[in-house]
């Protein structure tokens, strides 16, 4: 691993953005306390210059949109968009027992990946609840890079650090890097990158900037996530835009991920929701021991009481987080789908109501609206190209 994966920091700066008590973001309205000081990514000045609408998100001042959520969403589905996701957290886990430590804490099986590969996995608690969902990148047998959610950065770091074993070291390096997500069917071509398997990574140079190229993303489209040092972020961003990528905000990132049913931590999955009820049993290697595995094996044996389902509205309405579903369910994520031109969402319902084709009734601002459970993902390119 090159020397730039070492130590640089992005200093906190005081935000002049107006305080925002309710933020329409990621398909839901989230009420957030606004700290006196918001963190800014290394690309903050670029967002301001581009006229982006900036909002508080997970302690950061982030662009929610530039031209608008719908055109940005469609740009990613049809061509190529770029997101500043430098607010995400990066944790290094190193040492001769780094593998052993992570195997005991993460739900997936790290023995299934080799150097240059990555894995989607969960950090679970004793109840099988989800502390965070993250991607583990194997740099070497003794070195892993974890990319965690911005809002869970401290929680994930503390959870792993407190369980550190002799021969392992956990280090929060989040402020040293910038991360750009370049997504869309034309993303790799615009960047001049060859095809590669999903969930692989490697070092390279783009626009004169040394980058870690990760074949991962959160939109359901081909593409990559580019990691560089904080000081190189503006040069890399400018180069990606010169190649034809459309700048996109977190609003479009949310509508894109919801169309393909990628869960959002804090809404669809939380420390109180178990992985099996959330439909994430496929990333739980229950033949190995990790925190929460015993409880998850019990839930697998008895069957979960509820499931996270995808649905579409049969009437003109937009579902939002927290809306009741008749029969004992609740919407966890909801939005208007730019590709399907209808309301879509995910939510927990009793198992008896979870099969595709089941009818749901959702209370949308006091009015009952009909919905139907559908298979995941809600949006499928081959059907909607």
Strand and helix layout:
Blueprint: E1 22-25, E2 28-31, H1 44-49, E3 53-57, E4 60-65, H2 69-78, E5 81-84, E6 89-94, H3 98-103, E7 118-124, E8 130-140, E9 143-148, H4 153-162, E10 169-172, E11 177-183, H5 187-191, E12 201-206, E13 209-214, E14 223-229, H6 233-242, E15 246-248, H7 250-259, H8 293-302, E16 306-313, E17 324-325, E18 329-337, E19 342-350, E20 359-364, E21 367-374, H9 381-384
Parallel strand pairs: 5-15
Antiparallel strand pairs: 1-2, 3-4, 5-11, 6-9, 6-10, 7-8, 8-9, 11-14, 12-13, 13-14, 16-19, 16-21, 17-18, 18-19, 20-21
Helix pairs in contact: 2-7
Q: How would you characterize the overall build of this protein?
A:
Among the domains are: 22-86 and 176-258, Probable tRNA modification gtpase trme, domain 1 (Gyrase A, domain 2, 2-Layer Sandwich), CATH 3.30.1360; 305-385, Aminomethyltransferase beta-barrel domains (Elongation Factor Tu (Ef-tu), domain 3, Beta Barrel). It is built from nine helices and 21 strands. It has 385 residues and is an alpha+beta fold. The chain is globular, with a radius of gyration of 20 Å. The protein is 18% helix and 33% strand. The protein has helices at 44-49, 69-78, 98-103, 153-162, 187-191, 233-242, 250-259, 293-302, 381-384; strands spanning 22-25, 28-31, 53-57, 60-65, 81-84, 89-94, 118-124, 130-140, 143-148, 169-172, 177-183, 201-206, 209-214, 223-229, 246-248, 306-313, 324-325, 329-337, 342-350, 359-364, 367-374. The longest helix is centred in the first third of the chain and has 10 residues, at 69-78.
